[in-house]
Design goal:
This protein is an alpha/beta fold. It has a single domain, classed as Dehydroquinase, class II (Rossmann fold, 3-Layer(aba) Sandwich). The protein is built from five helices and five strands, in the order βααβαβαββα. The termini are close together.
Length: 138
């Protein structure tokens, strides 16, 4: 059984409440229940933090024993050299995910410190971006 973890960064705990025109009206906890049901053959975990160091610690914790990480680092994508370095330093492949098409938004969102070290990048497909990332590990 594959062991995967979804790691969400800052403000993604507000899904379902925050800017529903961009992010939709479903909470991530409800969505996570749905995708767990769609992938019963996968051991799937979820972690969320608004704190950069906690995200780095989680990547270090799972980065040598899991089969894959689905990472939506939120705004840290565009600012955190530390998260990019953490991904570079672990063995577990990471797929970078974004709910919105970051290239269709503000210019500062066009830069990612994660992409150069990620297995791949999926963006702009709403919450389905997570499922596409999970599928890449199958």
């Amino acid at each position: 059984m594959k062991k995967l973890i979804i790691i969400n960064g800052p403000n993604l705990n507000l899904l379902g409440k925050r800017e529903p025109e961009i992010y939709g009206s479903l909470t991530f906890e409800d969505y996570f229940k749905e995708i767990k049901g769609k992938y019963p053959e996968v051991s799937l975990e979820y972690y969320q933090s608004n704190v950069e160091g906690e995200l780095i610690n989680k990547l270090h914790e799972v980065g040598f024993s899991y089969d894959g990480v689905v990472l939506n680092a939120g705004a840290y994508t565009h600012t955190s050299i530390g998260i990019g370095d953490a991904i570079k330093g672990i063995e577990t492949p990471v797929v970078e995910v974004h709910i919105s098409n970051t290239f269709g938004r503000e210019e500062f969102r066009h830069q990612s410190y994660i992409s150069p070290n990620a297995k791949g990048v999926i963006l702009g497909f709403g919450l389905q971006s997570y499922e596409l990332a999970i599928g890449s590990f199958m």
